[in-house]
Design a protein that fits this description.
The protein is mainly alpha-helical and 207 residues long. The chain has 6 helices and 4 strands, in the order ααββββαααα. It has a domain of 141 residues. The strands form 2 sheets. A two-stranded antiparallel sheet has the order 1-2. The chain has a two-stranded antiparallel ribbon with strand order 3-4.
Length: 207
């Protein structure tokens, strides 16, 4: 049985690192990179453990891996029949992507320890790198299209802050901002259309 606490910790550790480094990163100096990398290492280990539990210890029906709703709660309640939920769904694709995202992000963190050494924005870079990882993990675990939109926008915000480094091309930064904003509005438009046509915003019927 997969513990929901482990699944929640996978994205929450990068989020906690973002908040910690955002508030106290300048005082920590280069040690902030160690904190960010250690946090991602733990998340990667939890992802591998979750993948092992899902693929080798979870129950299969007719030889197929089943969707698991790790947790779910009401985030915004507009009326009795209209609400926005927050949750995490595990299926074979999302479990594998948890491992991919955390592993790749860990490699980026390790590389950045040397690449960003001596930079004035060292702690800020690692802070928003953690936010970027949290956003990507949120996309992987999202249980409905509203979560997808929220985490998509967080990806854009974090990338924008990461690209503030002076050596990055200003033109590339502007293009990434425009592209993310345009795609975000288009995605939101599709959200409302699907809500109107299909009467729900979930990927599958979770009831």
């Amino acid at each position: 049985m997969i513990d929901a606490i482990y699944i929640a910790l996978i994205p929450l550790l990068p989020l906690a690192t973002f908040l910690l480094l955002g508030l106290f990163g300048k005082r920590m100096g280069n040690f902030s990179g160690i904190i960010g990398t250690t946090s991602l290492f733990i998340s990667a280990c939890l992802s591998i453990f979750t993948a092992y539990q899902y693929f080798f210890n979870s129950e299969k029906i007719d030889g197929a891996y089943q969707k698991i709703i790790a947790f779910k709660f009401v985030w915004l309640q507009f009326s009795e029949n209209v609400s926005i939920d927050m949750g995490a769904i595990l299926d074979p694709i999302s479990v594998m992507m948890l491992v991919v995202v955390t592993f790749v992000s860990l490699m980026v963190h390790i590389y950045s320890l040397g690449y960003m050494k001596g930079e004035e924005r060292f702690s800020v870079f690692f802070s928003f790198l953690s936010l970027f990882t949290f956003s990507m993990l949120g996309l992987v675990l999202a249980s409905n299209i509203f979560q997808i939109y929220i985490f998509w926008e967080l990806v854009g915000i974090s990338v924008n802050r990461i690209l503030l480094r002076p050596t990055f091309c200003r033109c590339s930064k502007q293009k990434s901002i425009y592209c993310n904003t345009f795609c975000g509005f288009r995605f939101l438009d599709r959200n409302f259309n699907s809500r109107f046509l299909f009467r729900h915003s979930r990927f599958r019927n979770d009831d």
